[in-house]
């Protein structure tokens, strides 16, 4: 372990959902290694979920609250979205860090080699490594479970008291009073019940779904989810593939069931432009879910009639120009799917 990098800037990358004492020890190492510290906040610009309950601004405030006044000016924050493509993600992180480091020649990367989930640290060979392999065995997933499972938030906070800095405990207490907290408790319970239903399976299940991105007249067709997980969030029409059908058939069936799109299936099949598999292991709260996203371009001047039904609270045609501003309102990785086909972001 090298903790004497003598660097101009030190980088700490994480999701920090929430920031705990293990993270705090790494941040202390970064502060000791360089006069300037850049904290990269992963999974930014997501809609709130049981997995990503805190916005990047809330996480930055949480971390800042643990610092001494004289240290706060030394720490900067960089918000990075999940691209679900390692090379693209690493390129954006490198670019943003270089911009924030303001010409720093020697950059050190601080990290904890825990398990396979730490593989992201290997994407920055240009930076000096300050890695440790032994640290406090604290898991943010377990902390989130405690926060969402106890009936009394003070009981939850008492359970995690030894795992988070005192300033974070105070922050979490105030945060639990926000309107977003109770819906997240409901979502957590729904996800846990979903996973429990499959716990007796002899192997960890892998689910197959099909989604439909339908474009025409400068708009795309979206549905608003009617139930948990992701209740109230926007998504592409889609769902689980049934035993008897092909993937394209599943996409067309779900599209018809959720939107009532007034277009013949044969016309949709003729309008199919591309199909891409999205298979990142962490793309769905419900477990390992692989989806086949179908991109249809109707190339019409008018918007066909739609009507939300089945699992969709509503269906609507949304201007493509509005999608980038809706990023934090999308379910799972559906913004990323839209971004892949329509190139909504330009950071890379």
Automatic annotation (TrEMBL):
Pfam families: CTP_transf_like, NUDIX
Highest taxon listed in the record's lineage: Bacteria
CDD domains: NUDIX_NadM_like
InterPro entries recorded: Cyt_trans-like, NUDIX_hydrolase-like_dom_sf, NUDIX_hydrolase_CS, NUDIX_hydrolase_dom, Rossmann-like_a/b/a_fold
A molecular function (GO) term: nucleotidyltransferase activity
Cofactor list: Mg(2+)
This protein's record includes keyword Transferase: yes
Domain (Nudix hydrolase) ranges: 197-341
Keywords, comma-separated and alphabetical: Hydrolase, Nucleotidyltransferase, Transferase
Name of the protein described by the UniProt record: Bifunctional nicotinamide-nucleotide adenylyltransferase/Nudix hydroxylase
Organism field: Janthinobacterium fluminis
């Amino acid at each position: 372990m090298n903790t004497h990098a003598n660097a101009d800037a030190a980088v700490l990358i994480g999701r920090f959902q929430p920031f705990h004492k293990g993270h705090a020890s790494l941040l202390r190492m970064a502060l000791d290694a360089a006069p300037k510290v850049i904290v990269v906040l992963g999974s930014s610009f997501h809609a709130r979920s049981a997995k990503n309950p805190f916005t990047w601004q809330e996480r930055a405030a949480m971390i800042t609250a643990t610092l001494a006044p004289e240290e706060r000016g030394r720490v900067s924050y960089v918000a990075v979205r999940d691209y679900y493509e390692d090379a693209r993600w690493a390129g954006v992180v490198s670019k943003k860090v270089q911009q924030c480091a303001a010409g720093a020649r020697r950059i050190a990367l601080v990290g904890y080699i825990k398990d396979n989930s730490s593989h992201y640290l290997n994407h920055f060979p240009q930076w000096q490594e300050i890695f440790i392999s032994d640290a406090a065995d604290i898991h943010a997933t377990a902390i989130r479970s405690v926060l969402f499972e106890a009936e009394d938030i003070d009981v939850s906070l008492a359970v995690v008291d030894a795992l988070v800095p005192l300033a974070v405990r105070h922050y979490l207490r105030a945060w639990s009073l926000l309107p977003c907290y109770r819906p997240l408790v409901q979502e957590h319970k729904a996800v846990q019940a979903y996973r429990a239903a499959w716990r007796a399976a002899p192997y960890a299940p892998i689910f197959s779904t099909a989604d439909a991105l339908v474009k025409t007249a400068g708009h795309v067709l979206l549905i608003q989810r009617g139930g948990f997980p992701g209740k109230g969030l926007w998504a592409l029409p889609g769902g689980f593939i049934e035993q008897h059908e092909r993937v394209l058939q599943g996409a067309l069936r779900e599209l018809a069931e959720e939107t009532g799109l007034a277009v013949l299936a044969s016309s949709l099949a003729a309008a199919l432009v591309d199909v891409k598999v999205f298979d990142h292991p962490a793309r769905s709260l419900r477990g390992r879910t692989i989806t086949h996203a179908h991109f249809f371009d109707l190339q019409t001047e008018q918007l066909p009639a739609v009507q939300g039904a089945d699992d969709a609270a509503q269906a609507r045609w949304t201007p493509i120009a509005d999608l980038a501003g809706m990023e934090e309102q999308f379910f799972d990785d559906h913004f990323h799917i839209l971004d892949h086909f329509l190139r909504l972001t330009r950071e890379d």
